[in-house]
Design brief:
By secondary structure, this protein is an alpha/beta fold. Helices cover 28% and strands 33% of the residues. A hairpin with a 4-residue loop joins β1 and β2.
């Protein structure tokens, strides 16, 4: 049901993310599809940070990977949703349907790993996904990860997708504030280089050590 509701959201159906505490927020699908002009400065800034070959973990419909491809940058997107992968490929992005924690091509050779749109919270284990990013990076490579600019600390929770008349299964997620970036980087074999606040969003650049 999670996959079905996610694909329906990407197809245009209104869908929400429900938190275990009862809070519900509409999924920012138009942002993921690259249809929000207000997000263009953020995307531009993130892409300018990509240095050489880039892999995006949880690429969704591939707006960032597609832009890198059009600019001639070697890039690969990874997502578990077959529908998201098809949408990304339709934009000209090289993408594959896979578990971001499973075997991936080029491990240890990527110059940049992207974790954008909350994907540092995947599996409610930000240290695990950052360690995975480090494993994928070449010496001298860096991870560009978006953290929550308005949230302090890390909270592990359960969330689920909902429409107005259906609910998917609960799954683990983390809310991770930008104030945690330095400590998480250190615990994950990375070094915090810079924090960039772009509008109301925040991105950390972390080097492989």
């Amino acid at each position: 049901m999670f996959g079905e509701l996610y694909e329906r959201a990407l197809a245009g159906e209104r869908c929400f993310l429900r938190h275990a505490d009862g809070h519900r927020a509409e999924l920012p699908v138009q942002r993921w599809l690259g249809n929000c002009a207000v997000d263009e400065p953020f995307d531009d800034a993130v892409l300018a940070m990509c240095d050489g070959s880039t892999i995006e973990l949880g690429c969704g419909p591939g707006r960032l990977i597609a832009r890198l491809a059009r600019a001639g940058v070697p890039a690969l997107g990874v997502d578990r949703s077959s529908h998201a992968v098809r949408l990304a490929q339709a934009l000209g992005a090289a993408t594959m349907r896979a578990d971001v924690f499973g075997p991936l091509p080029g491990a240890g050779s990527w110059r940049t790993v992207l974790l954008i749109d909350g994907n540092v919270g995947l599996g409610a284990d930000p240290e695990r996904i950052l360690r995975r990013s480090r494993h994928l990076l070449a010496d001298g490579g860096h991870c560009i990860a978006e953290f929550d600019a308005k949230y302090a600390g890390t909270t592990n929770t359960q969330v689920r997708l909902e429409t107005d008349d259906e609910s998917g299964p609960w799954f683990p997620w983390s809310m991770v504030g930008i104030d945690c970036a330095d400590e998480l980087a250190e615990r994950s074999g990375l070094r915090l280089k810079d924090v960039h606040v772009i509008g109301d969003r925040a991105v950390a650049s972390m080097a492989r050590i």
